[in-house]
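Morning F.,

Quick status update on the modeling queue. The single chain you submitted on Monday has been processed. Sequence for confirmation:
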Amino acid sequence: MTDHDERELIRSVEDGEWRSVANFGEVRERLVAAARETTAKDARINVRISSRDVEALKTRALEEGLPYQSLVTSILHKYVTGRLVERPGEYA
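Structure tokens below.
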């Protein structure tokens, strides 16, 4: 988060743009349950890919600040949930 982002957040709070959730306890429980379901790693797969692609994944993961296995898991999750977005002009 940049200084500009922080200033904008503080301004929005001070201007009263944020509202409390009326049923926060229920919403929190629902979100915690969803997070647990999403992060449960209860299956294992083995995939053979080229060492070149593994190195590219490791490089990309390093740029994102996370382990490459987590990056792969995130990519696969986004793909199966229909949230993986292809940028225009990109191709495999």
